[in-house]
Fold:
Amino acid sequence: MAEEKSNKNKSEDNLDAMAGNGNVDQIRDILFGSQMKDYERKFSRLEERIMSEVTRLKSDSNKRFDVLEEFINKGIDSLSDKLRVEKTDRSESIKELTSELTSTAKGLEKKLNSFEQTTEKDVRELRQSLFDQSKTLLNEIGEKHDEGMAIFDRSVNELRDEKANRSTLSALLTDLAIRLADDSLYEQGE
Structure:
C-alpha cells in the first residue's frame, strides 16, 4: 500500500510538472486518451440510438395521433349523423303529436259542445217536467183542500147536529144522576 501511495504521488508530481509546462492537453491525452475516445464512441453510438429511438417514437406517436384523430373524426361524424337522424325523428314525432293533440282537442271540443247542448235540452225538459208536475200537484192540493174543506164542513155540521143530541143526553144523564142520588139517600134513610 505504501508503494501504491508513493507511485501515485510520483504520477501526480509528474503531472504537476507537465502541467506547469503547458502540456495539460498532452497529459490528459496520455492519461485519458484511449478512455475518452472509447467514451466518445459510446456516447456517439448512444446518441445515435437515442436519436433513432426518438425518431421512431416520434413517428409512432404521429401515426397513433393520426389514427386517434381519424377515429375521433369518424366518431364525431357518426355522432353528428345520429344526431341529425334523431333530430329529424324528433321533429316528425313532434309534428305527429301536435297533429294528434289538435285532433284530440277538436274531438273534445265537439263532445263538449254536444254535451252542453244535451245538458241544456235535458235542463229545459226537466224544468218543463217540474213545472208540469208542480201544476198537477197544485191542482191536486187544491182538490184535496176542497175535499178537506167539504169534509170539515160536513164534520162541523154533524157535530152541531150531534150537539143537540148531546144536550138531550146530558139532560137525561142529569136526571139519572138526580134519581140515583135520591135513591141513595132513600136507601140510607131506611
The mean pLDDT is 81.
